[in-house]
Write the structure tokens for this entry.
Amino acid sequence: PEVTAIHGITNEMVTGKSIDPDKVASRIAGADIIVTHNAAFDRPFLERFCDGFAAKPFGCSLSEIDWKGEGFEGAKLAYLASECGFFYDKHRALNDCHAGLELLSRPLPKSGAPAFAKLLERARQPVWRIRAVGAPFDFKDVLKSRGYKWQEERPGVPKAWWIEVLEEDHAAELRFLKEEIYRREVDIPALRLDARNRFSVRADALG
């Protein structure tokens, strides 16, 4: 009922309906990049549904554009659209896609660069996912204020605070953890990610 209240789709509307993963794989075969407005949420679902997504680079119009730096107070798709002066019937897949395309085609208010160009620029930059496994509890607020997120234990992956940083910030972040959090020399798990595996369930399994 809670989900139906958001988008108006009922069980009766989808009963007997299905999406053919082979047809989806055919449609995306020639795509250079898959863009969603929350790839961290969307990509794992897509990969589980259709193997074709696993080999594709992904870009995220939610996290890979600096909306705050461009003067926006939020980054939800409907909010961004309204701030750019257009409205649409949200929570319908095709409408959301069209709204996203319209948003990405427009210049950003401060930099003046097309939003899609900024997304591609960011997606091409590798990041490091750093996990502060076993970080002292007393420093949780310090980690949180620095941008770390908490992740519960999963099979083969211990619970930990984690963050993703750009390549040029990798060494400095490890140094911060050793000097300010652990206060000793320690091996810190770090995984290099690019557009082909960032947001992916494969990367999630690796840590």
In short: The chain has a mean pLDDT of 94. The first strand starts at residue 34 and ends at 36. The radius of gyration is 19 Å.
